[in-house]
Amino acid sequence: MSQPLRAVIADDQALVRSGFRMILAADGIDVVAEAADGVDAVAAVRRTRPDLVLMDIRMPQMDGIEAARRILSGGLDETRVIILTTYDLDHYVYAALTAGASGFLLKDVSPEQLVAAVRLVRSGDALLAPAITRRLIERFAQRDEAKPSLHRDLSGLTPRELEVLRLLATGLSNAELAERLTLSATTVKTHVARILSKLGLRDRVQAVVLAYETGLISPGGNS
Fold first, then answer.
1. How far is Cα 128 from Cα 136, in angstroms, rounded to an integer?
2. What is the pTM for the complete model shown?
3. Per-residue pLDDT reduced to its tens digit, 208-217
């Protein structure tokens, strides 16, 4: 029998934390800690090493973006972060993704959508469709051109892997990649997994971010 997913909930509103805890617990997801601010969230995650963190953006002492950045750069390779907010603003999404988050949800998400999102991200997928991420990055990438990337070297990728990454960054799904490249779905999945592993990325969304940061894809263009 597989172990239940383990989650941390970080939000400065106790009622929000309680509601999310009830939703997750009803689906067999174990909430191992709660935090009311970013500082406590980082400490709770380092202490409990959960599978996933539900992280509010606006919290006292340290906001959720900075907390996510510290968590995801702190050696917890198996932990995923989903950002939660009441504010449907593109720059928050972009900041969350560049910090390493694997997804973004509004707080009015339904219980079913919340549970599905948690399980999707934990399975290694990304919560935002790459096509959505691409539009966000095209909007903001030029503002961050001077910002250094942690993964600018693509020399370790084979020509085929570079081709897959370039197409993946345009928003194609695995099925669409398989059709475009005349490959099996299994082969495409293997290519994507190797790309993520070689570049130290958590998921497909991070691959889209990287493709823009490295210039493999340019805002408004295909290469």
1. 11
2. 0.71
3. 878 877 888 7
